[in-house]
Each structure stands twice: as structure tokens, then as C-alpha cells.
């Protein structure tokens, strides 16, 4: 073989390696020490062979001390425990430090130069001192759309904060060779928030990944994490409206529509990671209270509780539940009558609803998914195979052809 050919082959091979690592779809598990500790679930239990990325949920917003901002010591301790457990077992698994913050926290911090600087400095200590591979901002309910509880200027100051963070994260990546650090951002799937709170294009451009939070969906739906919204039948027939839309309106609240809005705004699908919550939402409500829009008043004001899959999989096996499938949402739910005349309803995920969501992830060519939380799954195998849902989701993610393979297939 000529030397030239060898060089060429080596070059092609290195490209191939680069493509195969760059194009893999991501499977991300989240871990919450405050939820995991009460059930005795240690960082050592996280199945790293299926979780190449772990998100730590979460650091509370750092508090202001003089001109500095400091993270809570307990959060740092819990994070260090996770990082050392992961590093002991693997040198490829990456750990993402998520930072929670209310709309108020982030608005005040992002709107003043001095505060932005202090926040960026604190965030960078998570990379350089606590050895995180990435930081994620969980800016909860930005904007002032009525759903968001922030400020109308959030969409501008958010970009400024992300610019500052981007610069600092790039600098941190350069400080240690071959140690790429990343900046992630949690995005909302509420139509009103998407509409008003984000400069979607810049948010995508400045971050490595946007994680789309399923818990931000518009809760009008029967299904709590719906694929499609339930069409709303118009209470009064107004001819011009009926002519335009028919006598029902597709509300655009389902994930198929809300995730598409991030893509249509110019966000590269491979940057988007769809969140999948391994929990159900339980509501107890009084049937029969009707609003002018239908029978949803009782439902909306209902007591709402989260039930992790681990708990609900045994609960819904009890007597008395009737099972139904929400055709639009693409999710199952069960209902039963309570002693006090109320109805109890649990909307949840099963392998069928997860299959539909993964079909969408594949079809839209997202960068992958994140799962809330690794310990919400049936970790002890009380309802069948342990970690059944995580195993299913992981196998689906691994079976998605890489973007480069997809492109070749598409050209042919
Ligand atoms: C989701 O929307 C796309 C168009 O954006 C459509 O082709 C597809 O059939 C929809 N999927 C579902 C499950 O409704």
C-alpha cells in the first residue's frame, strides 16, 4: 500500500469515528438526590451502561453574598457524591449539573451586568471545581405571558446571560485539553411561553442542547404529556369561525406541535432532547361542574399529585380502576369513583405511549431524549422486569439511524 493511500485511509477512519461519536443520539438519565434518598437509591445504583449522560437535579439558585453568588453546600456535597461515583465506574459517562431558578431569580440576575458576572463565575465553579461536564439552566416559566411569571424583557436578557455563559464555558473547555464542556438549557413546551419568552433561534445557537420539559405542557389536556391536543368543540357556532376552522379547534398544545415550533424557529433538531417523565398525574375532581367551554372546570381545579411509575404500576393493578386510552394524547389513563362522590383519574405512560413518543423523536430527528428520573422506573422489578421503561427507551434511542446514515439513505 502506498503511503498516500494509508494516510487517506487514516483520515477517512478518523472522520468515521468523528461522525459516529458526533451523530449518536443521546440517552440521558436524570437523578434527584432529594427524591432518591428517601427510597435509599444511591448514586452507585444508577445503571451507567444504559445512562451515558446523567443530569443532577438540581442545584438551587445560588444566593447573593456581597458581590458574589454561592451555591448551597448540601447541593455541592450531593453533586460531588454523584460525580465521584460516576468517575469511579466510568471514564466516558458525562455529568450535567442542572441549576434551578424561579422566573424572579433569573430575571433579576440576567438584567444587571454585575449579577450576570457573579452568576457566570458561580456556574463555572461547577465545571472547574466540582468537575461537571456541562451545566444546564432551568429557567422556570420565563416571560410574562400569563403562564410565565417573569418579565417581558426576559427574551433579551436571557440571550445576554447565555452569551456570557457561552464564553465562560468555551474558556473552561480550553483550560484542560480534550475536555469539552457544554452549556444546556431547559426549554418549555407551553405554547404561550414558546411564543413570548424565548428568542428561540439565539437560545439554540448559544447552547449545546435544549432539553424540552414535558412538565411544562398546557394542563388543559386529559393526558398530562400529550402527543396531540384534544380538539375543542366550540360552544357556540359562529358561521365565520365554523367556515374557517370547522366546529372544533385543534389547540396546538400537543408535543407534536409544540416541539415542532422549536424546529420551525430554526433550532437544529439534533440540539433538542425531548424530556420523558416516568410518572403519572393523579387528579381527584368532581364531575358534573360545567363551564361554558365544556366540563373541564372541576378537572382543572382538581387536586393534582405526581406518582412515580414505580408506585403507580402497583396502584393501578388494584381493583376498581377502569382503563381508557386518550386517542389524541396518545396516552393511557385509569379512573375510579371515590367514596366522596369525586372521581379519581391517573394519566400515565406505558410502553404504548412511549412507543408513540419515540416514533416522533425518530421522525423529527431530535438529538435524543432525557428521562425523569432514573429512579422513577420500576427499579425493584415489582411490576415485572426491573427498569423496563428505561431499557425500552434506551433500545429505541440506540436503534435510531445516525443523522449521517439517514442523510445517505435519503440521498439514495
Ligand atoms: C406530527 O406532525 C407531523 C407534521 O409536522 C405529521 O406528519 C405527523 O403525522 C404528526 N404525528 C402525529 C402522531 O400526529
Automatic annotation (TrEMBL):
N-terminal signal peptide: 1-22
Any GO BP: chitin catabolic process
Organism per entry: Anopheles epiroticus
Pfam families referenced in this protein's UniProt entry, alphabetically: Glyco_hydro_18
GO cellular component: extracellular region
Example GO molecular function: chitin binding
Top-level lineage group: Eukaryota
Sequence ranges assigned to domain GH18 in this UniProt record: 25-400
InterPro entries with a match to the protein in the record: Chitinase_II/V-like_cat (IPR011583), Chitinase_insertion_sf (IPR029070), GH (IPR017853), Glyco_hydro18_cat (IPR001223), Glycosyl_Hydrlase_18 (IPR050314)
Keywords annotated in UniProt: Signal
Name of the protein in its database record: GH18 domain-containing protein
Regions that span the bilayer: none
Classification via SMART domains: Glyco_18
Amino acid at each position: 500500500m502506498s503511503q498516500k493511500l494509508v494516510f487517506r485511509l487514516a483520515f477517512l477512519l478518523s472522520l468515521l469515528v468523528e461522525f459516529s461519536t458526533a451523530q449518536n443520539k443521546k440517552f440521558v438519565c436524570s437523578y434527584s438526590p432529594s427524591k432518591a434518598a428517601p427510597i435509599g437509591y444511591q448514586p452507585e445504583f444508577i445503571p451507567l451502561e444504559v445512562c451515558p449522560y446523567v443530569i443532577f437535579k438540581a442545584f438551587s439558585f445560588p444566593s447573593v453574598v456581597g458581590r458574589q453568588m454561592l451555591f448551597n453546600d448540601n447541593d455541592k456535597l450531593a453533586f460531588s457524591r454523584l460525580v465521584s461515583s460516576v468517575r469511579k465506574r466510568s471514564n466516558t459517562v458525562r455529568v450535567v449539573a442542572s441549576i434551578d431558578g424561579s422566573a424572579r431569580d433569573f430575571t433579576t440576575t440576567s438584567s444587571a451586568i454585575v449579577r450576570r458576572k457573579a452568576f457566570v463565575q458561580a456556574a463555572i465553579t461547577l465545571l472547574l471545581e466540582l468537575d461537571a461536564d456541562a451545566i444546564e439552566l432551568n429557567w422556570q416559566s420565563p416571560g410574562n405571558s400569563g403562564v410565565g411569571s417573569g418579565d417581558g424583557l426576559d427574551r433579551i436578557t436571557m440571550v445576554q446571560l447565555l452569551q456570557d455563559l457561552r464564553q465562560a464555558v468555551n474558556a473552561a473547555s480550553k483550560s484542560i485539553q480534550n475536555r469539552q464542556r457544554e452549556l444546556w438549557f431547559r426549554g418549555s413546551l407551553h405554547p404561550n411561553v414558546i411564543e413570548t419568552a424565548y428568542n428561540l433561534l439565539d437560545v439554540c445557537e448559544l447552547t449545546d442542547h435544549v432539553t424540552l420539559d414535558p412538565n411544562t405542557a398546557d394542563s388543559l389536556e386529559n393526558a398530562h404529556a400529550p402527543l396531540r391536543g384534544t380538539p375543542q368543540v366550540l360552544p357556540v357556532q359562529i358561521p365565520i369561525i365554523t367556515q374557517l376552522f370547522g366546529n372544533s379547534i385543534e389547540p396546538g398544545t400537543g408535543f407534536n406541535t409544540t416541539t415542532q415550533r422549536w424546529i420551525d424557529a430554526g433550532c437544529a433538531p439534533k440540539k433538542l432532547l425531548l424530556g420523558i417523565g416516568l410518572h403519572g398525574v393523579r387528579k381527584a375532581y368532581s364531575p358534573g361542574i360545567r363551564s361554558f367551554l365544556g366540563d373541564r372546570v372541576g378537572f382543572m381545579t382538581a387536586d393534582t399529585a405526581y406518582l412515580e411509575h414505580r408506585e403507580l404500576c402497583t396502584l393501578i393493578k388494584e381493583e376498581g380502576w377502569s382503563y381508557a386510552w386518550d386517542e389524541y394524547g396518545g396516552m393511557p389513563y385509569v379512573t375510579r369513583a371515590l367514596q366522596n362522590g369525586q372521581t379519581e383519574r391517573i394519566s400515565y405512560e406505558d410502553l404504548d405511549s412511549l412507543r408513540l413518543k419515540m416514533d416522533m423523536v425518530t421522525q423529527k430527528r431530535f438529538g435524543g431524549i432525557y428521562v425523569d428520573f432514573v429512579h422513577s422506573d420500576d427499579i425493584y422489578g415489582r411490576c415485572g422486569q426491573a427498569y423496563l421503561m428505561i431499557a425500552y427507551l434506551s433500545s429505541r434511542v440506540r436503534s435510531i439511524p445516525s443523522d449521517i446514515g439517514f442523510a445517505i439513505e435519503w440521498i439514495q
